[in-house]
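Working notes for the structural subgroup meeting. M.R. asked for a predicted model of this chain before we commit to crystallization trials. I am recording the input and output together here so anyone reviewing the notebook later can reproduce the run.

Input as submitted:
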Amino acid sequence: VVEQIAQRAAEIVGEQVQAEPERWITLYEAADYLACKPRRLYALKAAGRIPHRVDGSRVLFRASELDRWLDEGGGKVP
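Returned structure, recorded in token form:
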């Protein structure tokens, strides 16, 4: 019974974690995350080579999209 309660509690916690949306990070936070200079991200954005969103004058990223982009070879020079 204790094991079933523990399993159900883990499921509930997992559902709550999944329900919380991933936050957007700024260009400077993304540059820190990727250990590169902000101007490189500006260049990749301008070339349409990196996943991003624009909100007015802000350029925003999601770390999970950056990870996927890197895993797919997005950081390679064509």
